[in-house]
């Protein structure tokens, strides 16, 4: 159970502690932040509201710990990560319980998130050993005018302190996707978890603690992003920021200093369906892509662009599937569960009402109880409706009927987002042409958008982000190249 057994030291009275210098501590602020259960809409947990002084101390300690960690052999770093991965999987149930209570993730999916996170940590350890174990050897005589008298050795070195800020929808998986690459590359980590999801993240951090990582190497600061966020992201001790979330990331990129940024932000992933598509396959993916975790995924299908000639058939099939979806509490593994906050539900409702006023066709009746919104497919959505462009981050999916492929590509590229997109067609040549024309970080052919498997590159264009994630890319991003050049007194040619 959360906050008990192996996790008992995380909790004092009813407030979860923050993690610093290898210990669980109470904040000197004496204040806490309440986490509201999206299902009951009542306070579920409390976490410490950390102070700026505590952040300063964390940064100092983190810097010292990083210097020692960078001298720890790579295989030993990997060994500790493997140990943390085992512990994460061993404690999947209490961590998943927090995800159910804090972010209303269906119980089965919550367990999957933790297991996936363990796998990500192990894979990262293995990948890190391979890619960080290799450098480059360059010789000078390949550049015009040079003899072979300079030998350049390059290797990848750590950046220092990586600030990791994940969003509410994957507070464990999108935290470890930053923590593990940072650690294997020799960095220290300061984690600021999302408020909704903070307790799951603290339990995850405890697995790293139990694995035996050195004191100070990993810290976890809790508190509202709106209060402590700017102080963290603008802190001079930070050497890299890895952020996943919404528009906050755009603001951070304007305020952060001259440090590498990895930003994974919002998306409005389009699903283009052509006349020759397998409509059963497309419908199944529209439902899975649009409604899993109630649409609260950056990679959710957020607009369907279907050719008019097959639109009726698609809409009928999707409607039939939506009718079978279960709606209710995450504990009962319902397909659709309450969205994360009341303000999120209000925002979604605003988009629905705008579409209603402008004449969209409701394939189901709009229904809401508290934060729980029933799945809704809106047909005949037009570009003048907000739903055509904004991301609801909820179980509401607009369908725009198109008469040419170009119309679909144009709509996709006119978005301020450019995360992923997908195409359904039986013609691979057409699929490749459309994929080339779509201005998104990834295009999926005949499947819904997805970040995973976690070693695949994951990136967005325009407001969807900066840089690329995925295990290999994250490890590289959290390092920089260091060169050592040996200058020989006379040119030397091997076997010459
Ligand atoms: N591209 C991607 O991979 C993903 C993108 N998203 C996008 O994120 C949004 C929803 O996630 P959500 O968690 O609400 O996103 P937010 O951007 O609101 O929050 C993300 C994180 O930033 C923190 N934060 C808030 N204010 C600041 C600040 N000023 N400085 C630093 N950190 C801050 C939050 O903490 P706190 O909770 O305390 O406010 C949270 O940990 C959607 O728009 C979605 O598209 C979500 C998941 C993945
Ligand atoms: O934040 C998100 O929504 C995730 O990055 C999406 O991950 P998934 O495609 O694996 O669900």
Automatic annotation (TrEMBL):
What is this protein called in UniProt? Answer: NADP-dependent glyceraldehyde-3-phosphate dehydrogenase
Which branch of life, at top level? Eukaryota
Where does it reside? Cytoplasm
Top EC class for this record: oxidoreductase
Quote the catalytic activity from the record: D-glyceraldehyde 3-phosphate + NADP(+) + H2O = (2R)-3-phosphoglycerate + NADPH + 2 H(+)
In this chain the Aldehyde dehydrogenase domain maps to 24-483
Which family, according to UniProt? Belongs to the aldehyde dehydrogenase family.
Q: What keywords appear on the UniProt entry?
A: Cytoplasm, NADP, Oxidoreductase
Q: Which PANTHER family match?
A: ALDEHYDE DEHYDROGENASE (PTHR42991:SF1)
Write down the InterPro entries for this protein, in alphabetical order: Ald_DH/histidinol_DH, Ald_DH_C, Ald_DH_CS_CYS, Ald_DH_CS_GLU, Ald_DH_N, Aldehyde_DH_dom, ALDH-related_metabolic_enz
Does the keyword Iron belong to this entry?
Answer: no
Q: Name one GO molecular function term.
A: glyceraldehyde-3-phosphate dehydrogenase (NADP+) (non-phosphorylating) activity
- Assigned EC number: 1.2.1.9
What is the originating organism of this protein? Cryptomeria japonica
Active-site residues, record numbering mapped to chain: 264
Query: PROSITE patterns, per this entry?
Result: ALDEHYDE_DEHYDR_CYS (PS00070), ALDEHYDE_DEHYDR_GLU (PS00687)
């Amino acid at each position: 159970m959360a906050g008990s057994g192996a996790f008992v030291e995380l909790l004092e009275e009813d407030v979860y502690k923050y993690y610093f210098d290898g210990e669980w501590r109470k904040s000197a602020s004496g204040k806490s932040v309440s986490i509201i259960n999206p299902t009951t809409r009542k306070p579920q947990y409390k976490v410490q509201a950390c102070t700026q002084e505590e952040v300063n101390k964390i940064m100092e300690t983190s810097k010292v710990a990083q210097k020692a960690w960078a001298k720890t052999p790579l295989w030993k770093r990997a060994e500790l990560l493997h140990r943390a991965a085992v512990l994460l999987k061993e404690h999947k149930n209490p961590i998943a319980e927090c995800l159910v209570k804090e972010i209303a993730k269906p119980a089965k999916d919550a367990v999957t998130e933790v297991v996936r996170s363990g796998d990500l940590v192990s894979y990262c350890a293995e990948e890190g050993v391979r890619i960080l174990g290799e450098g480059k050897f360059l010789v000078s005589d390949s550049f015009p005018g040079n003899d072979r008298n300079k030998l350049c050795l390059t290797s990848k070195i750590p950046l220092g302190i990586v600030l990791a800020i994940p969003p509410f929808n994957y507070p464990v998986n999108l935290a470890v996707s930053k923590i593990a690459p940072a650690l294997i590359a020799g960095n220290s980590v300061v984690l600021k978890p999302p408020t909704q999801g903070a307790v799951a993240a603290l339990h995850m951090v405890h697995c790293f603690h139990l694995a035996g990582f050195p004191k100070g190497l990993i810290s976890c600061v809790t508190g509202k992003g709106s209060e402590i966020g700017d102080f963290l992201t603008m802190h001079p001790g930070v050497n890299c920021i890895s952020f996943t979330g919404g528009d906050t990331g755009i603001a951070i990129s304007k305020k952060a200093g001259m440090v590498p940024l990895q930003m994974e932000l919002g998306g409005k992933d389009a699903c283009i369906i052509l006349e020759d598509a397998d409509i059963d396959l497309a419908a199944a993916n529209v439902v899975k892509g649009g409604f899993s975790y109630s649409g609260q995924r950056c990679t959710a299908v957020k607009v369907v662009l279907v050719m008019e000639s097959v639109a009726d058939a698609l809409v009928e099939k999707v409607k039939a599937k939506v009718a079978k979806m279960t709606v209710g509490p995450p504990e009962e593994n319902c397909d659709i569960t309450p969205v994360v906050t009341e303000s999120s539900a209000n925002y979604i409702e605003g988009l629905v009402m705008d579409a209603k006023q402008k004449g969209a066709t409701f394939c189901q009746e709009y229904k809401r109880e508290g934060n729980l919104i029933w799945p809704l497919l809106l047909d005949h959505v037009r570009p003048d409706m907000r739903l055509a462009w904004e991301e609801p981050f909820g179980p509401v999916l607009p369908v725009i009927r198109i008469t040419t492929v170009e119309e679909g590509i144009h709509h996709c590229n006119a978005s301020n987002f450019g995360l992923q997109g997908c195409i359904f067609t039986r013609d691979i040549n057409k699929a490749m042409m459309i994929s080339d024309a779509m201005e998104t970080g990834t295009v999926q052919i005949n499947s819904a958008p997805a970040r995973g498997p976690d070693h695949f590159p994951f990136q967005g264009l325009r407001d969807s982000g900066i840089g690329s994630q995925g295990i290999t890319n994250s490890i590289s991003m959290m390092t920089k190249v260091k060169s050592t050049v040996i200058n020989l007194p006379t040119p030397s040619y091997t076997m010459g």
